[in-house]
Amino acid sequence: MENICIGIIAETLTPFCYHSLMVQDGTATLPELIGDRAIAFGLAATLGLLHKSVALPEKNYRKHLQAMPYRTSVFTTQHPKLLPPLTRRLNLDDEGGYSRRIQNVVKRGNLATYFQTQEVPHGQTFKGAIFGFDPFKETGRNELVIRIGLHRNGMVLLKPDDTVRGVCLNAATAALFQRELAVKRYCLHSLQLSPHYSLTEAWQEVNQWH
Prior knowledge:
Blueprint: E1 5-12, E2 21-23, E3 26-28, E4 33-34, H1 36-46, H2 61-66, E5 71-72, E6 75-76, E7 86-89, H3 100-105, E8 114-118, E9 125-131, H4 135-139, E10 144-148, E11 154-160, E12 166-167, H5 171-176, E13 185-188, E14 191-193, E15 197-198, H6 199-206
Parallel strand pairs: 3-8
Antiparallel strand pairs: 1-9, 1-11, 2-3, 4-6, 5-9, 7-8, 10-11, 12-15, 13-14
């Protein structure tokens, strides 16, 4: 990768959620961060790097991230917020009918007909970095909008930010590339925050993710 480190501010244009934390009658999003993979794949979609297919590809995060000309940090905020719980409806019967196995569990967990999510509100700002590639220079734009969240319902505005001095990396992503990082906070199996790195230190680390 090229020796490029770009500090980024990400502002939510619309609310978004992920099935992150189990809560009563549903799930809540981790409000203090946007995962590095969410940023990476959201940016790839905006740049037209994703293969168009009616079928989901086999999950292989290392292979897919390896094909991208950049690496990303975790994006974090100092002022996390969540909206009040939002009730959603998922009727699998209307979507094509249940198998017996699904029928046995449909009243529980995220397969319930009604469940709740908690979303990150619009107007939230997160900071992070992109390494090895300048998407703004390559597209000739000062701002880029990416989609993240469940069903990619959330929209996030990315802009360069030269006030970013340090970032956290995802130790779980590093492990995909046989790199072992210290873990400051274990959030999810796929999201493990490293200690704080300067942008130079972070680039030196992600430059080995290949």
